[in-house]
Amino acid sequence: MKAVTWQGRRKISVEEVPDPILQEPTDAIVRITSTAICGSDLHLYEVLGPYLSRGDILGHEPMGIVEEVGSEVTNLAPGDRVVIPFNISCGHCMMCRSGLQSQCETTQVREKGTGASLFGFSSLYGSVPGGQAQFLRVPHANYGPIKVGSELPDERYLYLSDILPTAWQGVKYADVPDGGTLAVYGLGPVGQFAARIGRHLGYRVIGIEPVAERRAMAQRHGIETLDFSKNLGEELRSMTGGRGPDSVVDAVGMEAHGSPAGAFAQNAVGLLPDALARKAVETAGIDRLSVLHSAIDSVRRGGTVSLSGVYGGNANPMPLFTMFDKQLQLRMGQCNVRRWTEDLLPLVEDPADPLGVTDLMTHEVSIDEAPEAYASFQKKQDGCIKVVLKP
Predict the structure, then answer these.
(1) Model-wide pTM > 0.85
(2) Cβ contact 149:215 at 8 Å
(3) Total structural domains in the chain?
(4) Which residue in 80, 91, 107, 232 has its CB near the most CB atoms, within 10 A?
(5) Which residues in the chain belong to E strands, given as ranges?
(6) Is the pLDDT of residue 283 over 80?
(7) From the CB of residue 105, how many other CB atoms can be counted at a distance below 10 Å?
């Protein structure tokens, strides 16, 4: 089969690799019909390469048709259409029963001290082959896959794999009061959905984004927008009665613009041998923190900052005096995809499309064009906001 593989920093290639096979009685094999490039994939493309090996199959936003199931998979049959959550969870451990599927005790990567295994996301999360391929082996298929109907196009359902529940969780974690104001930093795919979800739930939403095309997309959905500027905190306070927004979602993460020290650290790490680079990631402050620090500055006193963007460093300088003095709450973490499925499935199937899932994809390309699509997405070229690959 064809698969998108990592070959080095900023080096992606499409290779012929062996088809996956059933390995456990709870496995399924899914023929992928659509799979997307996520902003998190760009962290592997740029920063987290030391945790990858040449030939690793990328991707964690797939959907498709069940081809084969193991003997203990009774909820699926060949021919079923499914969306595959990016985190692999068992459904029966204490964490899963508590709605914390991203911390699944069955699939935790204990040798790395990390949470549930993830598709296509490096040795930090289990080195599980990803979904940017023609076929995918799905562990714990008796719980994880989301069975969907056959009439609506893939783009109605595809984002249930990651970015839509990630945005939903980010807004829920932001704990916006009734009638309150939510600021969303970053209007990439997760930020677009977080802003639309905030509007759907009845909040005033202000999106912050330096790229004009992304601001324009958000404006189509009734979102107020601002460019990212050094006076952003003052602008937000002036728009909110002098206090600042009640809640903030950071949908950017470790590769924010406007963080020269973080950018220098990331570039320096990229020049190290893998063993030293992994040590640097695990012990140093390698994240670009301009967005997070701005969020802490701009949110009102007693407000909440919710982190949906991924951070990777372990020694990042944080303004703890400000955080303590302002009595802020911070919430964060990988999305617990299956926790939110029942909330979101009716919304993506609603003919009115209240979250605008059909207005996100900007580029649909064949799997063979994945290397060029990665480069365009990372450089934000050609109005690239969301790429869907068709294997």
Answers:
(1) yes
(2) no
(3) 2
(4) 107
(5) 2-8, 11-16, 28-37, 62-69, 81-83, 108-109, 114-116, 135-138, 146-148, 181-185, 204-208, 224-226, 247-250, 304-307, 329-332, 363-366, 387-390
(6) no
(7) 16
Domain of 78 in residue numbering reads as: 2-162+335-390
| Six-digit token string for 375 | 């480069």
CA distance 285 to 293: 14
pLDDT in tens, 151-174: 999 999 999 999 999 999 999 999
Mean pLDDT over each residue of the chain, to the nearest integer: 91
- Look at residue 263 in the predicted model and tell me its pLDDT: 46
Whether residue 194 is found in the same domain as residue 300: yes
Tokens, residue 328: 């802020």
Q: What is the CATH number of the domain that holds 302?
A: 3.40.50.720
Q: Where is the domain boundary, 287, 310, 332?
A: 332
Residues 6+ apart with CB under 8 A from 56: 5, 6, 120, 122, 127, 129, 130
Is the pLDDT assigned to residue 225 strictly greater than 50? yes
DSSP SS3 for 306: strand
Cβ atoms of 284 and 218 closer than 8 Å: no
β-strand pairing of 181-185 with 11-16? unpaired
CA distance 356 to 307: 22
* Percent residues over pLDDT 70 in the chain: 90
SS (H, E, C) 61-73: CEEEEEEEECCCC
